[in-house]
Amino acid sequence: MNKFTTLFTRLDETNKTLAKQAALVDYFKDAPPADAAWAVYFLSGRKLKRLLLSRELRAWGAAEAGVPDWLFEASYEVVGDLAETLALLLPPPEEATELPLKTFVEERLLPLKGMEEGERRAAVVQLWRELDRPQRFVAGKLMTGSFRVGVSQRSVIKALAIVGDVPPELVAHRMMGTWEPTAGFYTSLTLPEADGEIDASRPYPFFLAHPTVAPSDDLDDANEYFAEWKWDGIRSQVIRRQGQSFVWSRGEELIGERFPEILAVADALPDGTALDGEIVIARDGDVQSFAELQRRIGRKTVGKKLLKECPAHFVLFDVLEAGGEDVRNQPLERRRECLAAIAESLAEQGLNVSPSDLLEGETWEAFAVHREHSRSMRAEGLMLKRKDAPYGVGRVRGPWWKWKVDPYTVDGVMLYAQRGHGRRASLYTDYTFGVWDEVDGEAKLVPFAKAYSGLTDKEIGSVDKWIRRNTVNKFGPVREVKHERVFELAFENIQQSTRHKSGIAVRFPRIVRIRDDKIAAEADTLDTVKGLVE
Amino acid sequence: MSELLTRTDRGLYCEAGGFYIDPWRPVERAVVTHAHADHARRGMGSYLTTPEGEPVLRPRMGEEAVIQTAAYGEAVHMNGVTVSLHPAGHILGSAQVRVERRGEVWVVSGDYKLGSDRTCATFEPVQCQTFITESTFGLPIYRWPDQNEIFRQMNDWWAANRAAGKVSVLFAYALGKAQRLLAGADPSIGPIYGHGAVQVCNEGYRQAGIDLPACEYAGRGERGKDWDGALVVAPPGARGTPWLRKFRNYSTAFASGWMLVRGQRRRRSVDRGFVMSDHADWDGLLQTVRDTGCERCFITHGSRRVMEQYLNSETEVEAHQLETWFEGETDEGSAESDRESTDEELAEAANEGAGNE
After folding, report:
1. Which residues of B fall below an 8 Å CB-CB distance to A?
2. In sequence order, what are the residues at sequence separation of 6 or more whose Cβ sits closer than 8 angstroms to the Cβ of residue A349?
């Protein structure tokens, strides 16, 4: 636990990729495989299943620290992180012990789940008494499932590849899918490549696109690229191997059960096939909004009615494995030919699948015309993929680009503010904005969007200052501010919503800029916002 | 019956004695707790401070300022009110102000800390009935580590940077914190340089007889100078400015009580944070309230609400919040928490404040 905590501290202290890399390499060189396996588990964003409630931790922590509950909450509000609040408030440890990470997780954390509340409390308090402050912080993060450290999967993979002297792609592949954090697994990550080692379920790492706003500047000639619609769905890999079917999301979750239509696509594939595509909801060949898809997400089992109302459809855009062979190194043009054959045979069987359309055109101007129509297609814009490029790993600049449509923008008035978390703890960074609406013949500001991002640190500082000086009301942690300041907000889409006062919900709202050149009366109206979407 | 001290739009006022404590607008007679810009402002008819405080107050208030001094514990009589200054341990010459009239005693703490600091007189609690305390770090999360541990961390960091061929740039408030750190720096590691703002304050400390290691002016844009392995002490305002470029390959650190909280540390985006404060921590604040034996406590600067609620619910002391104009709505750890602000910022704030009233 000590070594893992040191690793965390080193990663946390720097924002330089090379320094992070060095910290990871140092750790993996030294760590016993059983501990390193858990480290890989946590560093790659995997979490323990819920062990206890944050409410319990707060109450036990306050009691152990000898502070009243309200004072614990006041401290939490300033620190903005429960694990850190606990680490800061608890008295120094009585007896610091050194627990290997494996022992710590398997013998001290995992058993918490099955315990009675009293027993669990005693076990947690005992843990606190054995850990020093930095360890308590990391332990708290692991317990609450909020362990996050600014290190990418890519860096972890690279470090492992350096330590094991194997290609990073191989490590990346081995880390996909489901695995248990055991010493055996860890050791296998860095073994030399063996024939036929890829197990049945394992997906390939997804290849990701770089954003562009001006392809004519960033990219080569337009005729070097295929252009497709960029759908707002669930990026997925559909795999058929050894008589088994798998549907993976990009978050590396198996989602086949939730999308039986897509699982059926997998079932119909010949053994040794892996396809890349996007799950969307489509009716009569038309892709529906993300809101429709949301009705399906999060449901483990789907009823007949929902299946009928929101049928899932797989837009197929790449072939990664065919006839048991990894075809990722073939140029996209070749892979598309292979894909067309597969799609045809699937469609003949009446399955919900179709290959992505390749949009016509040889010039950026021609593609730009297609892009203008994205919204009416319910697409987010265009994908541009080099015809001669292999299927890569991760987000590499060059072969794949996303060229999204410009977001909608609206001027809203700040109504409420709340403090942020983590790096923005104790600063007012989470804002609610309103637009004008006529209520009982009177113009009123109705809340329509919350936004957290888009301002620079400097702007956040000055807005924070302004909020503190212009608070008119406090509701617990929420401050209502003078309805004075106008902000330009951008968002991707607008949907009807019964859960919001304004009757609409916006997707991915963020702040574009502060509009101090406008007064509140000049902000937009709800009708204007609704009018943005036909 | 009016109170011995009242809050006015110019500052904390003693009507009976005809003076203000740390006023923020021009007044005839000002008693100042210490020279930081949010406590000592230009334009007062006269200032009362300690003899140690004068050399640091003078450059900030101007050559023509009328500064009177009273030694720690020396009684000064003003219209039947007895005023005396007592060590606050915050920075050189910092004082608590004791005000007495006909047996009634108030103490205004100014900023204070309890821990040891070789660059200023150690804090002494003063018995009183009414205590006005700061509460910058008035939350139980704030408990300071031992100062020697921090000096060790700082010197280790410096030595490691030197070994890696880097300059160590240490950000700290120019008056007080910078000198405290210099006093703890190990000059055998390498050369030490100071930003201009730090050098001015060093001079005041030396005049008052405080021994500091040699610290050379880091100058403006000297090209081609070899800064190899140096420690450079600079005010927080120098962060992210072109002034830093000349050091080329450097590592940065910030020394402040705020560095205890990870979010604050990350927001500063410095390589290291050293937890060192010249304010009392939670235990220090509570102990001081106890030690004064006060019946009533007014709380300014920082976690007013928390301290008020804690004292009222957990102790016998009757507590109230006292808003000072400088912070407006500043509470726990806001963006404005860098208390030693620049004079420009304060001037701007003063203009805003005037408009509001």
Report:
1. 139-141, 143, 260-264, 266-267, 269, 271-272, 303, 306, 309-310, 313-314, 328-336
2. A268
